[in-house]
Amino acid sequence: MASLRPGESSHDREYNEDQDAFLQRCEDAYGSTFNIILLNKTLTVVSGPQIREVFLNDDGFSSVEAFEELQNLIAFFNTMRKSNWDMDHKTVHALVKDQITPNLTLFTPRIVEQLEKNLEHELGNCPAEDGGKLIEDPLVPLHEMVASASTYS
Q1: End-to-end Cα separation, the chain, in angstroms
Q2: Hey, which residues does 35 pair with through a beta bridge?
């Protein structure tokens, strides 16, 4: 468990002051996997090389179930539907079209920024005149980039 500041019962305040500095402090002190108390929950933070394993391997830990537990999106979508038997997905389509798509401008710059950081991290500077960089399996860095951008908050 990451240490709390004196007099605090959660990491909320420190996290909200500077997310990057807080997470970096915890990673430096505890490694790439550690627990924090945030939003009235004890959360396990996974970073570094373990991110890919968490997202691709549902044997011991389901990232989909964990995300659902935190976000309750199924309950949200079900409350927006007139019926849970919306077999043609018209209501979900309307919800995405009317609620999510108009707000993409809020999310796109953050996702692009994260993708650019990960592209630089995964591939670096690869000028053609230097012979470029051979990537045996291009899906690996692509999965890393998407997983990292998807978890960026």
Answers
A1: 21
A2: 44
CA neighbor of 20 nearest in space, from 43, 41, 45, 39: 45
Nearest to 1 by CA among 39, 37, 31, 25: 37
Residue 61 sits in the same domain as residue 23? no
Burial class (CB in 10 A: 0-12, 13-18, 19+), 115: middle
Instruction: Compute the distance between CA of residue 149 and CA of residue 87 in angstroms, rounded to an integer.
Output: 31
Residues 72 and 119 grouped into a single domain:
yes
How many structural domains is the chain composed of? Answer: 2
- How far from 84 is each of 80, 87, 89, 91, 92, CA to CA, in Å? 10, 8, 10, 10, 11
**Is the whole model's pTM more than 0.70, yes or no?**
no
Ramachandran sector of residue 7 (left: φ over 0; alpha: ψ -120 to 50; beta: rest): left
Question: Do 94 and 125 share a structural domain?
Answer: yes
Q: pLDDT tens across 71-108, in order?
A: 777 776 666 555 555 555 556 667 777 777 787 788 78
Q: pLDDT tens-digit profile of 8-19?
A: 888 988 888 998
Q: Which domain covers residue 75, as residue numbers?
A: 48-151
